[in-house]
Amino acid sequence: MATQKRSLSGRCWLMFSAVMLFLLFSAAITFRRHLPSPRQLKRRESLLEHVANSTLGFEKILVINLPSRRDKRDAMSLAAALTGLQLEYIDGAVDVEAKTLPPGGADSGRTPGELGNWRAHMDCLQRVVELNLSSALILEDDSDWDLRIKSQMQEFAAASRILLQPLRGTSDRFMDPTHLTTKSTDEPASYHLGHESQVAEPVSSPYGDIAGWDLLWLGHCGARFPIPAEEAAPLGRVEITDDPTVPETQHLDPQFGGREYIDQYPAHTRIVSHVRGNYCTLGYAVSQQGARKILYEMAIHAFTGPTDLMLHQVCGDTDGRIRLTCLSVQPQLFQHHRPLGDKSAFSDISNVWSGQNKLAFTRNVRWSTHLNFGKLLAGKTDYVDLFKDGQEAIDLGA
Ligand SMILES: *[C@@H]1O[C@H](CO)[C@@H](O)[C@H](O)[C@H]1NC(C)=O
Ligand SMILES: *[C@@H]1O[C@H](CO)[C@@H](O)[C@H](O)[C@H]1NC(C)=O
């Protein structure tokens, strides 16, 4: 009896072990199948690292520079060298003939400066298309940025993934429920850094798979959040909180945009959202298909106004245009630098400025690269910051 019992329990134990082993084994196989291969892992790691490469994770950085403005090129080349960036210059344009404009251009009433600006941007997009670049960052030559631009862009990349990438294990479901709708009536949903772990890892661009975005409007002089409305852009927002590179609210200047990001969020918050009504084209990245669509819309299809107005039209708030997927960030990561001296030197597009600028500044940017040339070259680290915490706002006067 005793031996029978023992052998019975022995057999049970054997069967139990076999079943457990089988379960473990199949679980391991299933798990393994969902794990990225070492090669995939390496690619992913390097993709996020690429944001900190000399072209900020894009294939090239193109800078528009009028040959007559060698002064701006001096500063731009120095700023790039001191922050580890590599630039390629595209000549600005002058004397644009009316007959070269797309329909609507000849009687659009734009100034020669505005037409030159439009042509230069089209030339950049043309270059992106001709070279078949997967992506490029396009800057105007008076753009400035924080010394910490590379870490800022890494946070932006985490945020853009949340808005652009499908949820993990899906190809057509997104964290932002308004992502694929053209008529959204929902309230905006907010996300935070960390949520990017819930979306699929991109493989073709650190900012989100290249087929999923057209334009990243990183530098502007005013922006708004999309509103729930017909034909509005998706509503999702990603909050980057406790960002020491964002000035306290008293220092922030919305310029031609809305104050919502200043009044409704705690200090030191940067917000990534889709584009609505951005002004100025001083810094934006395009994907290859984005460059093709914009070149078609703005150089071939229809000329409907200044460059920035047309660009925010193609980003989704007007009919008759191809609708692009465009992200923006408030406050912006690139901003005009305003140097000391003759204010008329600020711009070659318009001549609204006169008199002398007595304080060099870059709005909303704390450790401005331009303002820190002297510090950087002297090897100092007590950087110039016009927008210190706890300090009253200063009058920039221009
Ligand atoms: C930077 O990273 C991007 C994205 O992977 C890549 O296309 C580009 O070639 C890299 N730039 C340089 C200079 O290696
Ligand atoms: C452009 O690049 C894409 C992606 O790398 C490639 O599939 C395509 O064949 C290229 N087109 C040309 C004309 O080289």
TrEMBL record:
UniProt similarity note: Belongs to the glycosyltransferase 25 family.
UniProt protein name: Glycosyltransferase family 25 protein
TM annotation in the entry: 12-31
Species this protein is from: Salinomyces thailandicus
CDD domains linked to this entry: Glyco_transf_25 (cd06532)
The entry's keywords: Glycosyltransferase, Membrane, Transferase, Transmembrane, Transmembrane helix
Xref: InterPro entries: Collagen_mod_GT25, Glyco_trans_25
GO MF annotations, alphabetized: transferase activity
Superkingdom per UniProt: Eukaryota
